[in-house]
Amino acid sequence: MWNSTISSSLILFLFSALGAALLASLIARRRAIKSRAEAGVLQMDLDRTRGHTDDLERRAAEQEQWARLLMNRTHDMVLVFSVSPTGMPGPFLDVNDTACEILRYPRERILAMTIFDIEHAESPSAVRAYARLHDTDSTVRGLAALTNSDEFESENVIDMRRRMKRVLEEGEAAFEVTFVTGDGQSLPVEIQARHFPRPSGPLILLSVTDLTKHRETLQALSESVRFSRDFLAHSAVGAAIYDGERALTNVNRNALRIFGIPDQQEFARVKIFDAMLVPPEAREALSRGESVRFETILDFDAVRHDGLFLSTRTGRAHLDVLMNNLGLDKRYESKGYLVQVQDITQRREIEMELKHRETQLRQAQKLQAIGTLAGGVAHDFNNLLTPVLGYAEMALELCKMDETASEYLREVIRASLRAKDLANQILTFSRQVEPEGKPIRLIPIIKEVINLQQGSVSKDIRIIRALKTERDVVIAQPSQIHQVLMNLCTNAAYAMRGRGGELEVTVADLQVGARPRGRMAGLAPGRYLHIAVRDTGPGIPPEVADRIFEPFFTTKPRGEGTGMGLAVVHGIVSSLKGSITLETELEQGTTFHVMLPAEDIGAETAVENTDEIPGGTECILFVDGEVDIVQMQQRMLASLGYRPVVTHRSSDALRLYQKDPRRYNLVIADQVMPEMSGIDLSRQIHAIRKEQPIIICSGFIDTLPMEQARAFGVREILRKPVSKRELALAIRHALDTPSE
Questions:
Q1: Are 240 and 272 in contact (CB under 8 A)?
Q2: Which CATH superfamily is domain 619-736 in?
Q3: How wide is the angle at C-alpha 488 spanned by C-alphas 483 and 491, nearest 5°?
Q4: How far is it, in rounded angstroms, from Cα 206 to Cα 76?
Q5: Is the confidence at residue 582, as pLDDT, over 80?
Q6: What is the mean pLDDT of the chain?
Q7: How much of the chain, in percent, has pLDDT values that exceed 70?
Q8: Burial category of 306 from C-beta neighbours within 10 Å (exposed 0-12, middle 13-18, buried 19 and up)
Q9: Phi, then psi, of 535 in degrees rounded to 5
Q10: Torsion of CA 8, 9, 14, 15, to 10 degrees
Q11: Is the pLDDT at 241 greater than 50, yes or no?
Q12: From edge to edge, which strands make up the β-sheet containing 666-670?
């Protein structure tokens, strides 16, 4: 309840104390003079001092007026009282206007009260007991009787005497107590008490300050500090406070969690202002007293290896750091720094994944656009190739007796078939054609490719093969697997030209779980064959690696590469429902990882068909948009014994059919024609005669499913260019199969 705080209104207090002291001295002097006169002092002495007394009274009145002015000008309460022989305060001798206003009592009422009354106004019994103590004979016996009274609060009286004694002995003292105002409100105050001795008894002058606003300010400050402390402790952002010397003073739980550190003492070892975290430009800004914000990557494995601080985290973390300079204090010294840290590792990983997906999307869009172009080119190429293959086959039949001519024509046919495979690969890349695969074994094809490579690569390149599985069956075309491996091995050997190295081809089983990640992301669960083609070349720069599967993108000199190799490889692997990924590091080499779905069924064995080509005598309506193809097919159908009716316009074909639907045993139509597509023509014919068999030929097969085509009477779909045997077998199958 009490303390010894020094009053902030010391100057006003001294002025008030001086006026009160002069006033008390003059009053005492006047009383002494009057007493001497009453005691029979000589009249002459009285006359001599009368004039002097009048002058003193005038000066005392002026001093009293001046003291009153000072008392009423101060914002503190000023109260003056004497102390009785019992050590208790007497009634107030004087108070200022501020005391009346704050205590909410009229002056007359306060002058009839004591400080004890103001402190204990809530206890009327104590006030009455104190009044009797003040009015009765202040003997030890009487005081003891009142102290033992049931109405008297002895502890308060003892405490009041103790305070009065301290003021009388020390001359001045300071206390904090609670006053009770006239309307019953509690008023916390700070009292600065001073003792003025006088002959008639000690005089006490109080300078009282209202602490209500002060305590409200302290409470608000305390709440602000508590709020700041709670905010720091529960903030979602890691925060640490450093003093002007950059020494740690506080750190919250999130900062400890982000760094994986157990406590504040260990966190103090984190040199957060050092080069380990702060980039050079941010360090320069800090040296200029600026606040900085930056992103940094912290390698916790390196931290643990170097013993910088203890951490439970591993790997690398992306951190967003804000170092806020708290400015200068009144002495122009640094207050320190507030460092805030956010762990944005997950966000950066998501952004990188989104960027990767965006790159894949752009790649897919490029492939789609170029694939559309490639499909058109392949269609035209197949149309050109069709008469070449057809005429070569018919010429071969005419030149059976001439071995040289027959050999030449066989080479033309083989070249035409290879060109057909090339066109089909372009269509595969453009996704216009999904080749019908069959179960084949990978290892024999891989061995064949490696044998071919060993005869073509330089002697300073060592080829290694590691075939770690016997369950090597996949659903594909042999030419597809051959093209994928040849392309990857050729690129690997090209990367090591002039420097030598190792070319390693491995095959192993791979099981993909329900949540594949990394290079297996996007694969359906199941068993796969993992084919890896590794070289020890110079590696691929990142800017090149991002475009490695783009069509027509190549780093080879003009004339050495077309940029279609890896694009076609990517298309083939994707069509087989597999994936291909790249792993490369500069000066460490490159590895292509190919994952293909594995099958547990047996591989098919190709059987060469040596049967004669079947023919017939039926009437066939043939229509194609290319005049050269129409002419060639007319001769080929006639060579097989059939009676062809041909045209190069789909509208003419429909008109011919409408005139005599029963005349034609079979209709063969091209799919892509100017006026009407093959499917549309089939729909018109099917509406006229539902049992009419139809064959569709095209070098540009779209996504029309066979089931839908069968609804319009289509029995076969042939891909151009069509060999004579292939056409003959399809015709007999269509004619000999009953309609559904």
A1: yes
A2: Response regulator (3.40.50.2300)
A3: 120
A4: 10
A5: yes
A6: 79
A7: 76
A8: exposed
A9: -130, 160
A10: 170
A11: yes
A12: 643-647, 619-623, 666-670, 694-698, 714-719
The total number of residues shown for the chain amounts to 740
Reading phi first (left if > 0) and then psi (alpha if -120 to 50, else beta), residue 518 is in left
Cis peptide before 439 (omega within 30 of 0): no
Task: Specify whether the CB–CB gap between 87 and 161 falls below 8 A.
Answer: yes
pTM for the full predicted model: 0.41
Tokens 């100017």 belong to which residue?
Answer: 674
Integer angstrom CA distances of residue 427 from 368, 485, 645: 12, 19, 31
**Cα–Cα dist 550/296, whole Å:** 33
β-pair type (248-251, 89-95): unpaired
CA pair distance 346, 283, nearest whole angstrom: 26
The encoded tokens of residue 270 equal: 């984190």
Burial of 587 (0-12, 13-18, 19+ CB in 10 A): exposed
Q: What's the DSSP call for residue 39?
A: T
CA nearest to 595, candidates 578, 608, 610, 609: 578
Structure confidence by residue, pLDDT tens digits, 224-236 = 777 767 777 777 7
pLDDT for res 657? 93
Distance CA 687, CA 690 (A): 6
Q: By C-alpha distance, which of 168, 161, 179, 165 is closest to 117?
A: 179
- What three-state secondary structure class fits 263? coil
Spatial separation of the C-alpha atoms in residues 691 and 664, rounded to whole Å: 11
How far is CA 423 from its chain centroid?
47
Q: What is the mean pLDDT of residues 13-31?
A: 51
Closest CA to 178 of 159, 151, 165, 152: 159
Does the domain spanning 438-597 belong to CATH 1.10.3470.10?
Answer: no
Sheet strands side by side (includes 172-180):
89-95, 77-83, 203-210, 186-196, 172-180
Q: Token match 């068909």: residue? A: 609
pLDDT > 80? residue 453? yes
Residue-wise over 169-186: b if at least 16 C-beta within 10 A, else e? eeebbbbbbebbeeeeee
By three-state DSSP, how is residue 527 classified? strand
High-pLDDT (> 90) share of the chain, %: 15
In single-letter form, the type of residue at position 197 comes to P
DSSP letters, 367-402, are HHHHHHHHHHHHHHHHHHHHHHHHHHHHHHHHTTT-
The contacts of residue 692 (CB under 8 Å, 6+ apart) are 661, 664, 667, 685, 686, 713
- Residue among 104, 107, 114, 95 at smallest CA distance from 183: 104
Is the predicted pLDDT of residue 700 greater than 80, yes or no?
A: no
CATH superfamily of 218-343: PAS domain (3.30.450.20)
CATH of domain 10-179+190-208: 3.30.450.20
Short-list 434, 425, 433, 430, CA closest to 375: 430
Where are the extended beta strands (E) located within 227-329?
238-242, 248-251, 292-299, 316-325
Q: State the CB neighbour count (10 A cutoff) for residue 495.
A: 19
In this structure, the number of other CB atoms found within 10 A of the CB of residue 612 comes to 7
Residues contacting 181, CB < 8 A, separation 6+: 102, 103, 104, 105, 187
Contacts of range 551-559, beta carbons closer than 8 Å, 24 or more positions apart = 551/366, 551/367, 551/370, 551/374, 551/429, 552/370, 556/494
Q: What CA–CA distances, in Å, run from 122 to 126, 179, 496, 694?
A: 9, 10, 102, 115
